[in-house]
Amino acid sequence: MKAIGFTKCHPADHPEALLDLDVPDPAAPDGHDLLVEVRAVSVNPVDTKRRRSEEPQGGPRILGFDAAGVVRAVGPACTLFAPGEEVFYAGVVTRTGSNAQLQLVDERIVGRKPRSLTFAEAASLPLTTITAWEGLFDRMGLQEGGGAGDALLVLGGAGGVGSMVTQLARQRTGLVVVATASRPETAAWCRDMGAHHVVDHHGDIAAQMKALGLKGARYVFSTNTTARNWGQLVEAVAPQGKIVLIESQAPIDARDLMRKSVSLHWELMFTRPMFGTPDMVEQHRLLDAVAELVDHGRIRHTMTRNLGPMTAARLREAHALVESGTMIGKVVLEAI
C-alpha cells in the first residue's frame, strides 16, 4: 500500500522530512481491531513533534493520528462496527499511523463518522474533541448542564483543542467561556466557536477578566504556551479552582497554586489506549456522542485548510503550517 513516513528527523521544509513510500498492507485484523481504508487525515502538533524528535528505528515511521474512513474488515472480538461502516478516530502513538491507505485501529477508540460531514471535515475532529471532552468532563469533573455562572478560561482559543473546548463547554455546561486570542482573525474565530468573551494573552489576563466583571476563572484549560503564561494562569484562576494542561514546553512550579488551593490536572488523550484501561471504550462513546451533536447542528467541524490528496510534499506543507503557530482550526488532507 501507499504510505507517507520518515526515516530521519528533519525540519518540515527538508525534502526528506516526509517521504512517499510503498509498504506491505497491514495484517488481517485480530482481537478488537478494525482494518480501515483511510479517506482523510488531519495534522496535529503531536505529529510534528514526533517527526522532529523521534528517530525511527528499524525502518520508516508512519505518523498520523486523526483519520476518517471506511471499515474494510473486523477482528473476531469486534462488536461495535461492521465492514462498510464510516468511522472517525484518533489512533494511538504506539501503533502505525493514519498517513497510509490502510490502518489497523482498536474499535474501542473509534466513533461513527458524523453523517452530515465529509470525510475531510470529520477528520478534523477526533484528537482535539477527545482531548477537550476528557479535559472538561473526566479531569475537571464537570457535569452536563453544570458550572452555571462560573468562568472557564481557554488559553489558545483559536487552535484545534481550544475550538473544541469552547464548543463543548457552550453546548454541555453553563460556564461563561473566556477564550484567549491575540489577533483580530483569531478573536473572531473564538467568538464563532461560541466564546462569550475574548481576551488577549499578550496582555494582563486577570485584569481583562476583572474588567469583564469576572472575579477569576473557576476552570482553566491551557492548550499551548503554558510555561510562558504560567504566571498569568496562576493569577487568573479562582481560589479552589482547577487547571487542565495538555502541554508544557518548559518546567512549571505547581507550588505556585498552593496559596489558592488550586488542583492541577494533565490530559493526554492517548492514555486510555496506551495502557488498555478498563474504560477505554469511553472514547468510542464520546465520539459517538459528538457525532450526534454535529449531526444536530450543535457543534461544527474545525477544518479551515484542505490541501487535497495526500502526498509527502503536501504533508510537509501541512506540518509547516502547524509548526508556524498561526493556524486557526485544523489542516486536513484527503486519501493518498
Automatic annotation (TrEMBL):
UniProt entry tagged with the keyword Oxidoreductase: yes
Stretches assigned to the Enoyl reductase (ER) domain: 17-333
CDD domains: AL_MDR (cd08252)
InterPro entries in the record: ADH-like_C, ADH-like_N, ADH_Zn_typ-1, ER, GroES-like_sf, NAD(P)-bd_dom_sf, Quin_OxRdtase/zeta-crystal_CS, Zinc-ADH_QOR/CCCR
Location relative to the cell: Cytoplasm
UniProt entry keywords in alphabetical sequence: Acetylation, Cytoplasm, Metal-binding, NADP, Oxidoreductase, RNA-binding, Zinc
Pfam family, one: ADH_zinc_N
Quaternary structure annotation from Swiss-Prot or TrEMBL: Homotetramer.
UniProt record similarity statement: Belongs to the zinc-containing alcohol dehydrogenase family. Quinone oxidoreductase subfamily.
PANTHER family: QUINONE OXIDOREDUCTASE
Protein name (Swiss-Prot/TrEMBL): Zinc-type alcohol dehydrogenase-like protein
High-level lineage: Bacteria, Pseudomonadati, Pseudomonadota, Alphaproteobacteria, Acetobacterales
